[in-house]
Amino acid sequence: MVSYEYVLGGVLASLLASVFIMIINSARKVEGVEKSSNGFVRMPENDEEKGTDVVIVGAGVAGAALAYTLAKEGRRVHVIERDLSEPDRIVGELLQPGGYLKLIELGLEDCANESIDAQKVFGYALYKDGKDTKLSYPLEKYSSDIAGRSFHNGRFIQKMREKAATLSNVKLEQGTVTTLIEEKGTIKGVIYKNKSGEEFRTYAPLTIVCDGCFSNLRKNLSAPKVESPSCFVGLVLENCDLPHANHGHVILGDPSPVLFYPISSTEIRCLVDIPGTKVPSVANGEMAKYLKTVVAPQIPPQLYNSFIAAIDKGNIRSMQNKSMAANPLPTPGALLLGDSFNMRHPLTGGGMTVALSDIVLLRDLLRPLHDLNDASALSHYLESFYTLRKPVSSTINTLAGALYKVFCASPDPARQEMREACFGYLSLGGICSYGPVSLLSGLNPRPLHLFLHFFAVAVYGVGRLMLPFPSPQRTWLGIRLILSASGIIFPIINGEGVRQMFFPTTVPAYYRAPPVH
Length: 517
Known about the structure:
517 residues; alpha/beta; globular
């Protein structure tokens, strides 16, 4: 017969064990807890704060514009930005006319005006081997204010941040987001550290990640394949005039293009493209030598002295160019936007146009929804976003990737002919210049038109080879030119998605209706 002391001891031990387990669980809730294998943090149920509709990670061009836009729609927005001081970048300085139209749609056009010394841009001038051709934007049917805009990137961003912060339903906070909070496959918010290093959590039915090209969160919401085709070396030329006022200038140099465009009334940005991921050292003088001996002889003579003076001044900066097709993993409660979602070579200055177009589309998709709390239904509905954005994004992305490859010098005779054909085709004027520039400007986002113009350039190149008389060698070179053109554009189209790009209405998500509550 078991003594009652043993029974009592067993009961007490069980009670103590239960209390110990409760303390451990309680501590885990306070600490917040369980990390899953995919990098998310799992949170206990019913541990949510109310009061925010959308959390936005990042307040660059995309994040700041999105915050203002959604807040104007009545959403309560919490924006968390790593550094709220004015950015100092060498890209994101040229907004195409199509992007400026989107800025007007969002009510943000006053952020890119005289208050930041923004300059109007009316087109491009293209230079090759001492010859040049002027390519104007097709702006005839628009008001006189419609044009491209170029400016200091940091001033533009600060203006949008300031405008967003004036709205009472926007909370703009400096902090570093470390983790997405996930519960049962749904993103519930984020964990972040404020500028004092204290850790906080914020919750919302929808989290939109706009943390830029170096995003550390995109891997949780997409399957990114980031490419680094080249680097930009940036200089600022002071107190000089461009040969064609209020135009971007593209020099088809060797080994790759050189860009000039105004960023204020007294400054001209120069971007020298260097293929690959390594650039000459600035510290030991190799960069200055490269710019003076390789690049300087190829630029327009009107800019030569100012170019050399900018090199001697020593403020030479570089950055890696990145390209990444959009490859989202639809996740309830979260969305990617801006460079964290999709990047293209910055040669054509299309990134901000794509981001602003995406924001207009997302605003319109969310507008019928008063309640964002059904994360699964919302995610299913927003899958239409990925297809509906394709006309603009795929046109600008494909053009950027294809033009960069065509504009770079190459030892391959077929690529050389393609480069010559592109310059010649654009110099013809009429539809041959109007069509491609309308695509580049974001005013005519039609992938099929891009495809036709690209192969029209190739056919034009073959025609040049066949005159005055075809020969077996020239015929073979013409065939190689067509094959080279195909090798440039088809991989880019494949990355964008042939069906979504050319036949979006065949994608079921194209017809998704807003969820009804």
